Amino acid sequence: MPPQNRKTDRPGPSRRQFLSSGLLAGGAAVATGFGATRSAAAAGDPAITEIQDWNRYLGEGVVSRPYGVPSQFESQVIRRDVEWLTASRESSVSFTPLHELDGIITPNGLCFERHHAGIAEIDPSKHRLMINGLVDTPLVFTMQDLMRFPRENHVYFLECAANSGMEWRGAQLNGCQYTHGMVHCVVYTGVRLKHLLDEAGVKPSAKWLLPEGADASAMTRSIPMEKALDDCLVAFKMNGEALRPEQGYPVRLVVPGWEGNMWIKWLRRIEVGDQPWQQREETSKYTDLLANGTARRFTWVMDVKSVITSPSPQAPINHGRGKAVISGLAWSGNGRIKRVDVSLDGGRNWTTARLDGVSLPKALHRFYLDFDWDGSPLLLQSRAIDEAGFVQPTKDALRAARGSNSIYHNNGIQTWHVKADGTVENVEVS
Ligand code: MTE
Ligand code: CO
User: Fold this and answer.
1) From the CA of 300, how far away is ligand 2's center (Å)?
2) Which of 21, 296, 391, 418 has the most Cβ atoms closer than 10 angstroms to its Cβ?
3) Residue whose CB lies within 8 A of the most ligand 1 atoms, among 108, 160, 267, for a mutation test
């Protein structure tokens, strides 16, 4: 489904409008079944009475698909871009189809992409990683050299600082793929950056790193030494296999919990220095402009955030009233998620959701709220709280603190308006 092209600053309907129209009156009350087809009703169901092709004919043999791909019936599960946002396909962004996914791991082929100069197609045998600057011994590593350092595996989310940026001034894009899809979460295999820096011998005056990409944008970002020595990885695998070209093959920097812009892809050089570098034009945009024209600097950590992925505009309720599952994602650059609350009525009442599966620091967390839908309209919201005690703010609170000039670091609470027919729309309440 294409996004609705609502480029105006028109905010969604207000909570007052919902109150006056009586939309908030209902909610979830009726107890009904799980929707299993009763045997009487199923009597004439051809899915039972007819023998299907797949039950009759031999299927394709092993290795008919040497690299497996999803079922043909899952062809809608794809990355998408927003046409009016994609001025050039090389310097642009695609979005993860969050509404189609479950659990916490993003499949490699569905990770959103953000490139400033297109995808670099690198021959790993010709790729080198150099460490120079304030080090005792400048070093150049081949991919083979990197493989000889001790390896680690970690699950981390990567979120672009511009995720939800188009929503700063009001509800705009109809689907969590577009409002929140600049995030992915995979298992990385790599070497601690600390080991490589130790090998080169960092001088006492060294305080900053300038990693650089091998793509045509030669993307760079200044990273403080404490972070580099703490938990940064130089990663060559994602979800067990080589990084995809889109994600920086053969090697990328992993900067856990910090804005995606710093996770340099196609990593070819790390310069060590004693102060941050002047950012280039393209990357200097990653600064948050406040209402008075001044800027917030060094906003590296991605704040606590969550979104309901289903139901959502691209994933309406299509089974009618009764038992239903609300499913969503929460994450924080500060560590683990402690709790997620869900509201069915635009933030008046909250219920604690069920966090399910592993809870890993700086990774996505999956939450569910199982409920009975009585068929009345809902204003769905989720609010995450992280282990550092940060609570996800409302969009109003965020704008009161930061104005509406910003694009970056929008972690405000998202509202989905579920209508009586089960369709869902992006709205705002205040
Ligand atoms: N690294 C290089 N070399 N070139 C780039 O254009 N884009 C950055 C970062 N690293 C970029 C880069 C931005 S803004 C983001 S959000 C992440 O990569 C996106 O990573 P992904 O494409 O794996 O989702
Ligand atoms: Co980015």
Assistant:
1) 12
2) 418
3) 160
Find the 261 Cα to ligand 2 centroid distance in Å. 4
Q: Which two tokens stand for residue 337?
A: 């998620």
Distance, in Å, from the CA atom of 378 to the CA atom of 358, rounded to the nearest integer, reads: 29
Which atom of ligand 1 is least distant from the CA of 160? 16
Task: Indicate the class that CATH gives domain 15-31+301-427.
Answer: mainly beta
What is the residue extent of each domain of the chain?
A: 15-31+301-427, 108-296
Find out if CATH 3.40.50.720 is the number for domain 108-296: no
Does the pTM surpass 0.85? The reply is yes
CA of 301 to the centre of ligand 2 (A): 13
| Per-residue pLDDT at 199 exceeds 90 | yes
For ligand 1, pick from 222, 265, 270, 283 the residue to mutate: most ligand atoms within 8 Å of CB. Answer: 265
pLDDT of 335: 98
Cα-to-centroid distance, 159 and ligand 1 (Å): 10
Residue 116 has pLDDT above 70, yes or no: yes
Nearest CA-CA partner of 234 in 217, 221, 253, 248: 253
Ion ligand 2 — residues with CB < 5 Å:
114, 160, 260-261
- One-letter amino acid at 137 equals T
Contact 416, 429 (CB under 8 A): no
Task: Compute the distance between CA of residue 157 and CA of residue 52 in angstroms, rounded to an integer.
Answer: 41
Position 184 scores a pLDDT of 98
| Cβ proximity of 214 and 122 under 8 Å | yes
Per-residue pLDDT at 3 exceeds 80: no
Which tokens in the block code for residue 399? 């704008």
pLDDT score, position 15: 40
pLDDT computed for residue 36 by the predictor: 77
